[in-house]
């Protein structure tokens, strides 16, 4: 737990301790290396987008996701300008917060994230993700998120190169490689992003930093393999998870198993 954590963060940390990035790392022997040495195997995190949820019963939807075994919950915040859609204000998220036993992340698809950061931190978002394309002073914005007591994340659209995050790695806890153009759920996964995911994974490893690498958009039990093999370790799922015939718990288990097969 970092020194910048707020009391709300600390409560959320206790609730989600089993899913922390530090705790679940396994040590295995890598038979490919000579001599054999310990290798860190990342555990995939499965995170639903609430975009397909029934907004008239959002508290119940959040409780169902927690019971399904998700690692945290993503709120897609859209302003109708950065993306052509409008979604959640901070008051909606704050109202849902007491219904959750896992952390909240806010994916801010907005043109002016800086002025909104305190509102989403106060609403109970433990992780706040801004778009590189929306931030004139990305380093400052990420630093500000941490000052507010949240973890910081930076998202990049499918067309944006990995180099935009090279000089802010020290200020970020997560990189989100969008695998659709943001704005709507239910779009097709863009496999052409995978080489960028691999490049981002190398950048993280070369920097020696504990940064999560998230993918978002079109994630299914099939597409998750390519993203995991490229180096992603956090997987957002929206429409596929909600439409899974055997229910959300089975969908989470299916995605977790599929990611674990391919994660590197
Ligand atoms: O950020 C976004 C869309 O802008 C995503 O979170 C999607 O909402 C994920 O939904 P599916 O592609 O899994 O339906």
TrEMBL record:
Residues bound to substrate: 49, 107, 183-186, 216-218, 238-239
Name under which the protein is recorded: Ribulose-phosphate 3-epimerase
Swiss-Prot/TrEMBL catalytic activity: D-ribulose 5-phosphate = D-xylulose 5-phosphate
CDD domains on file: RPE (cd00429)
Cofactor note: Binds 1 divalent metal cation per subunit.
Biological processes annotated in GO: pentose catabolic process; pentose-phosphate shunt
Pathway given in the UniProt record: Carbohydrate degradation
Family to which the UniProt record says this protein belongs: Belongs to the ribulose-phosphate 3-epimerase family.
EC id: 5.1.3.1
InterPro entries: Aldolase_TIM, Ribul_P_3_epim, Ribul_P_3_epim-like, RibuloseP-bd_barrel
Domain of life per record: Bacteria
NCBIfam families, A to Z: PRK05581.1-4, rpe
Keyword Nucleus: no
Cofactor: Co(2+); a divalent metal cation; Fe(2+); Zn(2+)
């Amino acid at each position: 737990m970092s020194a910048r954590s707020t009391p709300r963060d600390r409560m959320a940390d206790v609730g989600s301790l089993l899913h922390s990035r530090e705790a679940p790392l396994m040590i295995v022997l890598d038979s490919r290396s000579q001599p054999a040495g310990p290798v860190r195997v990342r555990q995939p995190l499965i995170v639903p987008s609430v975009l397909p949820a029934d907004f008239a019963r959002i508290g119940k939807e959040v409780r169902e996701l927690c019971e399904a075994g998700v690692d945290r919950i993503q709120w897609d915040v859209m302003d109708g300008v950065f993306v052509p859609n409008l979604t959640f204000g901070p008051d909606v998220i704050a109202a849902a917060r007491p219904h959750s036993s896992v952390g909240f992340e806010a994916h801010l698809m907005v043109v002016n994230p800086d002025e909104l950061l305190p509102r989403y931190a106060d609403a109970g978002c433990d992780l706040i993700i801004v778009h590189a394309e929306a931030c004139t002073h990305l380093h400052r914005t990420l630093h500000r998120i941490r000052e507010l007591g949240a973890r910081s994340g930076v998202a990049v659209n499918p067309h944006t190169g990995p180099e935009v995050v090279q000089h802010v790695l020290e200020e970020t806890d997560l990189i989100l490689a969008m695998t659709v153009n943001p704005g709507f759920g239910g779009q097709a996964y863009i496999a052409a992003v995978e080489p960028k995911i691999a490049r981002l994974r190398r950048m993280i490893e070369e920097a020696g930093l504990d940064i999560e690498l998230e993918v978002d958009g079109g994630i299914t039990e099939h597409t998750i393999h390519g993203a995991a093999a490229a180096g992603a370790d956090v997987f957002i799922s929206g429409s596929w998870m909600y439409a899974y015939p055997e229910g959300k718990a089975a969908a989470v288990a299916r995605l977790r198993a599929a990611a674990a097969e391919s994660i590197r």
